[in-house]
Design goal:
The chain is α/β, with parallel strands linked by helices. The protein contains ten helices and eight strands. Strands 1-2-3-4-5-6-7-8 form an eight-stranded parallel barrel, surrounded by seven helices. Helix 4 (about 55-70) packs parallel to helix 5.
Length: about 290
């Protein structure tokens, strides 16, 4: 049983500047205290969130060291960079590889990315297939640039349907893209909260089609709130989330079941958020027992 938990890189690096970083300080206290509490509760890995271009090498190293010093595994929620024809990796991803190689971990480490969204800043007409075309191009070059020696495996995330995003928002779409590229170090991140929101809001498939689950190398777990917002706490060990976890387990999935929660969306006090986080971890443990 491998239960993971997402935390922002600013908080982990003890350089909290964003609202979300501040929330985690209010909820969990110091980074060391937070990680110790998570480990005692059954968490085995931490997903480092907000890893993107512009992250400083020191911030990256401090966040990796904080997690590894507590004896926890690491996964990474990154971004899909715009790759050049030379397949050169962005310097910050090269730095990430060096940091993760130093802290040896068994198996490939999922590096989760989103598909490209439509840019609306200039108000120009953009071809409908442009986000798909660019996602396929950059996803292919990123995966090839990482293979075969990298410690990272790219996980294309199933995204929530939004006005700006037309690519990567259905089971069939992300499955098509990974099959089209067809590389061993490229798989899928099944974001269960997103698939539930797409089912409820867009009437997409409730559960994945044949061939999807076999490509999953990482899973994001969160519920959908009464207002339709995602990254809600998992307060029950039955229902949609349980159905999806059962599918993953029956498929032989061996990756991390990663809780990706956003307490600042919940509209309750830090003390209540802490209780919801603990309930979510306990719900996951029951579903996986």
């Amino acid at each position: 049983m491998r239960i993971g938990f997402t935390l922002p890189i600013g908080y982990l690096a003890r350089n909290a500047t964003k609202k979300e970083d501040m929330w985690w300080q209010e909820i969990c206290g110091s980074v060391d205290e937070c990680l110790r509490r998570l480990k005692v509760s059954g968490i085995t890995s931490v997903e480092i969130k907000d890893f993107r271009e512009g992250v400083s090498p020191s911030q990256l190293r401090h966040s990796v060291e904080a997690v590894r010093d507590e004896g926890l595994e690491i996964t990474v929620h990154g971004w899909l960079p715009k790759m050049g024809a030379d397949c050169r990796l962005p310097p910050v991803i090269q730095e990430l590889e060096r940091a993760l190689t130093k802290h040896q971990q068994e198996g490939l480490i999922p590096f989760t990315v989103h598909s490209h969204s439509t840019s609306l800043e200039r108000g120009a007409e953009i071809p409908h297939d442009e986000p798909h075309r660019r996602t396929l191009y950059d996803l292919s070059l990123l995966s090839r640039a990482l293979a075969p020696k990298s410690v990272l495996a790219v996980a294309l995330e199933l995204c929530r349907h939004k006005a700006r995003r037309s690519a990567g928002v259905t089971f069939s779409d992300v499955l098509f893209m990974t099959n089209e590229i067809c590389l061993e170090n490229l798989g899928l991140c099944w974001d269960i909260g997103h698939s539930q929101a797409n089912y409820l809001g867009q009437k997409d498939l409730r559960l994945p089609p044949d061939g999807f689950v076999e490509q999953v190398i990482h899973a994001h777990i969160h519920d959908v709130g009464p207002d339709g917002r995602t990254h809600w706490p998992v307060l029950a060990s039955h229902g949609y989330v349980k159905d999806c976890i059962d599918i993953l387990r029956s498929s032989g999935y061996e990756g991390v079941y990663n809780l990706e929660l956003s307490p600042f969306r919940w509209g309750v006090s830090p003390k209540e958020c802490r209780a919801y986080v603990e309930t979510s971890i306990n719900s996951m443990a029951r579903m996986l027992s």
